[in-house]
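Friendly challenge for the regulars: who can give me the structure tokens for this chain first? No prize, just bragging rights.
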Amino acid sequence: MKILVTGFDPFGGEKVNPAYEAVKLLPDTIAGAQIIKIEIPTVFARSGPTVEAAIKEHNPDVVINVGQAGGRSCVTIERVAINLAEARIPDNDGESPMNQPLQADGEPAYFATIPVNAIVENVRSHGLPCFMSYTAGTYVCNCVMYNVLYMAAKRYPNIRAGFIHVPYACEQVVGKPNGTPSMSLENIAKSLEYAIEAVVNNKEDVAGAGAGTTH
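First reply, four minutes later:
Bragging rights claimed.
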């Protein structure tokens, strides 16, 4: 099995993005699956095509996109992406779409096809906090999640896909207001590793009782 894992480059004035920094810490093999790691741009127009280029190059069985959600206290597994682009800040190419569909012929929303509940349970079973989330926002994180699920539905039916949000890394909150949540890069990476382990070991999801939510 091949799993493509992507992380965004820094955005919004941050010097690092804990998404890609944590992805880089992942081992090259998890639960017997080959892990392919790439950085993608925090750009509405270019993020999806960058992932699709990697899909064509590597032919993965699973695509997991990882992004930063500053303000969340731990790793959260997104359940749904919506067909809407609204930028609270410009992306890294300076674009600020508002009230725009991501795909004119796409569904209003797509649900993750990775086993969200199983992921939450496996991360927690290793002593790390983890929650399900029902909102990936309307920025580039939602954009890439939606577009990859759209691609899977339209062109790559054998690919399972989903999105994981990670909190600020500890070093990012130096200078931010007291109480700003953060997590060590090592624990973020371990959470991602256990998430991927659950994806490998669960073709179908488990019952969601007790999985919890962030929103």
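The domain at 2-201 is CATH 3.40.630.20 (Aminopeptidase). DSSP finds five helices and nine strands in the chain. Your move, everyone else.
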